Amino acid sequence: MTSSANEKPLIEFQEGPPPAELQIVDLVIGDGPEAVPHGVVDVHYVGVEFDTGEEFDSSWDRGQSANFPLDRLIPGWQEGIPGMRVGGRRQLTVPPELAYGPAGAGHQLSGKTLVFVIDLLGVG
User: Fold this and answer.
1) pLDDT value at 117 more than 90
2) What residues are paired with 43 via a beta bridge?
3) How do 89-94 and 23-28 pair as beta strands?
4) Is this prediction's pTM over 0.90?
């Protein structure tokens, strides 16, 4: 895992069974304003599948951060980002129920546990 908030993180493969509950790990503690429930966040992120370690999305690869109202994101982000401070980097391991739902729910990532590393760049 790289820990500099100025470069794309590499997410290491995790051994063992996926967690049944949301796992939140602060990799870098920020010192800026705090993200709040129902707020707007500006983030850089990388997402991988827990089981395979395969990357499925990265704002870094698009060359620009993503700006979202938290209410429009998966429940794992709605629960896992509030309390984070600008300048911080957090890893969320999100079970299917808090991501895209159980297998067969209609999304290509349905039924999968997902791991995200999120850099909080700003709040609104």
Assistant:
1) yes
2) 66, 120
3) antiparallel
4) yes
Q: Return the half-sphere exposure (C-beta side, CA atoms, 13 A cut-off) of residue 42.
A: 10
Per CATH, which fold does 23-123 belong to? Answer: Chitinase A; domain 3 (3.10.50)
Cα atoms in the 13 Å half-sphere on the side-chain side of 80: 28
Q: Give tens-digit pLDDT for 72-92.
A: 999 999 999 999 999 999 999
Question: How do the domains of the chain map onto residue ranges?
Answer: 23-123
Calpha distance 17→28 (Å, rounded): 25
C-beta of residue 77 within 8 angstroms of C-beta of residue 116: yes
Contact 95, 19 (CB under 8 A): yes
Integer angstrom CA distances of residue 63 from 34, 41, 59, 81: 24, 17, 6, 22
pLDDT of residue 2: 45
> What's residue 18's pLDDT?
94
